[in-house]
Automatic annotation (TrEMBL):
UniProt GO cellular component terms: plasma membrane
Name of the protein in its database record: Putative permease
Family membership noted in the UniProt record: Belongs to the UPF0718 family.
Locations listed in the record: Cell membrane
Taxonomic lineage of the native organism: Bacteria, Bacillati, Bacillota, Clostridia, Lachnospirales
InterPro entries with a match to the protein in the record: DUF318
Membrane association type: Multi-pass membrane protein
Amino acid sequence: MKAFLKRYKVFLLLIIVNIIVGFALPEIGLKSLNLTKKNFIEMISVIPPIFILLGLLDVWVDRATMMKYTGKNSGLKGVLIAFLLGSAAAGPLYAAFPIAGIMLKKGSSLFNVFVFIGAWSTTKIPMLTFEAASLGIHFMITRLILSIIGILIIAGITEKLLNQEQQKKIYEINQ
């Protein structure tokens, strides 16, 4: 029971805060409840396909292949693969994290996983086409170039800021 409370303490705290707000300010509480319901329905529609893809990725791609193409010694090839995987993905950002976990389990480097998450969040191909149509090709290209530079810088800094013990713990969590 203690482990459950420790693991879900933030979630449980938010439920308590929502209940208090619901009683104190019923209008806001109802909006909060409706928003929670909407988000839950969205998650239920997104999570099952992601888990199916995760299962397929886990079974079909062996560790040696993943390490070869996105591991520590994969170089530019690994960065490009991680970037393209993130850019071609569909769905909200929270769907990227289980995939990132599988990548780590299969031996991808932290840098490439950070690139994958950054690409998922900022360079999705459908978003780029919408940007080009709405804001112009020059804007889209400028933002894409700056996003790529930013993703690489942030991934590099994040990896460097994590010491060996922290990196080891991230890999252990995903085993």
